[in-house]
Protein backbone atom coordinates (compact mmCIF):
# COMPACT_ATOMS: atom_id res chain seq x y z
CA UNK A 1 0.00 0.00 0.00
CA UNK A 2 1.28 3.47 -0.85
CA UNK A 3 2.03 6.07 1.80
CA UNK A 4 -0.63 8.72 2.29
CA UNK A 5 -0.41 11.93 0.29
CA UNK A 6 -2.39 15.14 -0.19
CA UNK A 7 -3.69 16.49 -3.50
CA UNK A 8 -6.05 19.27 -4.57
CA UNK A 9 -7.94 16.75 -6.75
CA UNK A 10 -10.11 13.95 -5.34
CA UNK A 11 -8.36 10.61 -5.73
CA UNK A 12 -9.20 7.00 -4.95
CA UNK A 13 -8.32 5.52 -1.57
CA UNK A 14 -6.77 2.18 -2.50
CA UNK A 15 -7.00 0.53 0.91
CA UNK A 16 -10.67 1.37 1.42
CA UNK A 17 -11.67 1.04 -2.24
CA UNK A 18 -13.35 4.46 -2.24
CA UNK A 19 -13.52 6.75 -5.27
CA UNK A 20 -12.70 9.78 -3.12
CA UNK A 21 -11.46 10.23 0.43
CA UNK A 22 -10.51 13.02 2.77
CA UNK A 23 -9.05 13.09 6.22
CA UNK A 24 -9.65 15.82 8.74
CA UNK A 25 -9.04 16.25 12.41
CA UNK A 26 -8.98 19.41 14.47
CA UNK A 27 -8.10 22.46 12.32
CA UNK A 28 -5.88 23.69 15.15
CA UNK A 29 -3.71 20.58 14.77
CA UNK A 30 -3.29 20.55 11.00
CA UNK A 31 -3.64 23.67 8.87
CA UNK A 32 -4.82 21.76 5.81
CA UNK A 33 -7.80 20.44 7.76
CA UNK A 34 -9.20 23.97 7.99
CA UNK A 35 -9.98 23.92 4.26
CA UNK A 36 -11.59 20.49 4.55
CA UNK A 37 -13.80 21.76 7.38
CA UNK A 38 -14.88 24.77 5.26
CA UNK A 39 -15.76 22.48 2.35
CA UNK A 40 -17.75 20.00 4.45
CA UNK A 41 -19.66 22.70 6.36
CA UNK A 42 -20.64 24.51 3.15
CA UNK A 43 -21.77 21.24 1.54
CA UNK A 44 -23.89 20.24 4.55
CA UNK A 45 -25.49 23.71 4.66
CA UNK A 46 -26.27 23.60 0.95
CA UNK A 47 -24.04 26.63 0.35
CA UNK A 48 -21.62 27.17 -2.54
CA UNK A 49 -18.30 25.47 -1.89
CA UNK A 50 -15.55 27.92 -0.86
CA UNK A 51 -13.06 26.01 -3.04
CA UNK A 52 -15.20 24.74 -5.94
CA UNK A 53 -12.44 23.19 -8.02
CA UNK A 54 -8.69 22.94 -7.85
CA UNK A 55 -6.75 25.84 -9.26
CA UNK A 56 -3.17 27.02 -9.11
CA UNK A 57 -3.64 28.59 -5.69
CA UNK A 58 -5.00 25.38 -4.17
CA UNK A 59 -2.17 23.39 -5.70
CA UNK A 60 0.36 25.80 -4.17
CA UNK A 61 -1.38 25.55 -0.78
CA UNK A 62 -1.36 21.74 -0.95
CA UNK A 63 2.35 21.74 -1.85
CA UNK A 64 3.13 24.17 0.98
CA UNK A 65 1.12 22.08 3.46
CA UNK A 66 2.84 18.87 2.32
CA UNK A 67 6.27 20.50 2.67
CA UNK A 68 5.43 21.82 6.15
CA UNK A 69 4.24 18.36 7.20
CA UNK A 70 7.53 16.83 6.09
CA UNK A 71 9.48 19.47 7.99
CA UNK A 72 7.36 18.88 11.08
CA UNK A 73 8.04 15.14 10.97
CA UNK A 74 11.81 15.71 10.58
CA UNK A 75 11.84 18.17 13.49
CA UNK A 76 9.85 15.78 15.67
CA UNK A 77 12.27 12.92 14.94
CA UNK A 78 15.27 15.17 15.68
CA UNK A 79 13.73 16.35 18.96
CA UNK A 80 12.93 12.78 20.01
CA UNK A 81 16.47 11.67 19.19
CA UNK A 82 17.93 14.60 21.14
CA UNK A 83 15.87 13.88 24.25
CA UNK A 84 16.63 10.16 24.09
CA UNK A 85 20.36 10.94 23.95
CA UNK A 86 19.97 13.44 26.80
CA UNK A 87 18.10 10.87 28.90
CA UNK A 88 20.78 8.25 28.28
CA UNK A 89 23.56 10.75 29.05
CA UNK A 90 21.95 11.67 32.38
CA UNK A 91 21.20 8.05 33.25
CA UNK A 92 24.82 7.05 32.56
CA UNK A 93 26.06 9.38 35.18
Automatic annotation (TrEMBL):
GO cellular component terms listed in the entry, alphabetical order: P-body
Recorded GO molecular functions are: 3'-5'-RNA exonuclease activity; RNA binding
Q: Could you tell me the Gene Ontology terms of the biological process aspect for this record?
A: mRNA catabolic process
RNB domain segment(s): 6-45
InterPro entries recorded for this chain? Answer: NA-bd_OB-fold, RNase_II/R, RNase_II/R_CS, RNR_Ribonuclease
Tell me the protein's name. Answer: RNB domain-containing protein
The organism is: Prymnesium polylepis
Amino acid sequence: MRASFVTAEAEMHEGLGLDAYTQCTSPIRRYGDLGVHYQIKAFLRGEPLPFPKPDGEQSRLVAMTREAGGLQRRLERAANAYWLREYLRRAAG
